[in-house]
Amino acid sequence: MTEPAHLTVTRAAYDTVAADYAIQLRDSLAASPFDRAMLSAFAEQVGTGPVADLGCGPGRITAHLRSLGVDAFGVDLSPGMISVARASYPDIRFDEGTITALDLPSGGLRGVVAWYSIIHTPRPLLPVVFAAFHRVLAPGGQVLLAFQVGDERKTITSAYGHAVTCEAYRLPVDLVEELLVEAGFELRARMIREAAGKETTPQAYLFGQRTAQRL
């Protein structure tokens, strides 16, 4: 089966920037109180049981969740990112994989985090991604999304000091919420904060709980 083009180009971009991405964002949570607050709330809700950080990159969010007592592991489509994550956090599990075709058992997780990892997925494929999240979560499992707010597709040609090519999508919060509900999630919290530092758009966080059935 031919791999979708957006996965191929996104993987190549993140392989290119992996080492510098990890260095430049290594301490970013320390300056992001809203990020820490949402992750802490998520950690309190999931309790015991495995949590997948999907699109984990170099593993900084996975490691932060572990520091909060969460049994977290990471999955990312970029071998370069997974290599950096394994070297940085050798005691944490990191696997290669994609959010559109998760190689995880059904109903096995207490939580899923997608921390800016849906931003490279074309909008028509978001229902596929959210259906996959629903499948791998146990009933009552939690999902936490973070993404940039907007309604546009942006072509990225440079990042973290490297020339790259990939597409990124700014997403309407109401649309993402609607798609989550259609996929079988009950929205529990949403927060939108204004852009800070070098950010150019507001940032959104959506917190949902898996219901027993999809709509």
Automatic annotation (TrEMBL):
Signal peptide: none annotated. Residues 51-141 form the Methyltransferase domain. Keywords: Methyltransferase, Transferase. It comes from the Bacteria. It comes from Actinokineospora xionganensis. One of its GO terms (biological process) is methylation. GO terms for molecular function: methyltransferase activity. This is Class I SAM-dependent methyltransferase. InterPro entries: Methyltransf_25 (IPR041698), SAM-dependent_MTases_sf (IPR029063). CDD domains: AdoMet_MTases (cd02440).
